[in-house]
Amino acid sequence: MTQTVPISDEQIRQLFDFFYGKIRVDPDLGPMFERAIPGDWVPHLPKMYDFWSSVMLTKYKGNPVAVHQRIEGLEIGLFDRWLDLFGESCGELLDEETAGLFWLKAVRIAESLKLALFYRPDRRWPESAL
After folding, report:
1. Domain ranges of the chain
2. How far apart are CA 16 and CA 12, in angstroms?
3. What is the rounded distance in angstroms from the CA atom of residue 117 to the CA atom of residue 115?
4. CATH number belonging to domain 9-117
5. I need a labelling partner for 101 at 20 to 30 A (CA). Which of 5, 9, 19, 66 fits?
6. pLDDT of 73-88, one tens digit each?
7. CA distance 90 to 48
8. Phi (first) and psi of residue 5, to 5 degrees
């Protein structure tokens, strides 16, 4: 897939403001995110902008696995709901090609996080992850 329009930091900020607005009101993800990020999301959002800017524009230096290990109530099946809302947000705000680029990265990130957080060689992989 060749990108015709470069992705900008402004586009990333708009997408994640919009997307996290959906997260906050989602009945499955909202309560978990509210526990992890209580109250004011202003300090958290720049971290998301930086992370996705790094992913899409190759800049990030951080440890998302360690951050997600601390989230109370995080279950493997919630990654599917996160991807649903992310895909919706991309489709509503971005052109098809740019949305596809974000979607591919999001799926890879979700799979990597699921493996890092939930896979244990001595246990069966959860049915909800299949």
Report:
1. 9-117
2. 6
3. 6
4. 1.10.490.10
5. 66
6. 888 888 899 899 999 9
7. 15
8. -115, 125
**At a CB cut-off of 8 Å and minimum separation 6, what does 109 contact?**
55, 64
Nearest-angstrom CA–CA distance, 68 and 33: 11
Query: Distance of alpha carbon 57 from its chain centroid, rounded?
Result: 16
Mean pLDDT of the chain: 83
Q: Give per-residue pLDDT as tens, 79-129.
A: 899 899 999 999 998 989 889 988 988 998 899 889 888 887 777 766 655
- Residue 125, classed as helix, strand or coil, is coil
Q: Which residue has the tokens 């989602």?
A: 26
CA neighbor of 63 nearest in space, from 96, 22, 112: 112
Please state whether the predicted TM-score (pTM) of the whole model is above 0.85: no
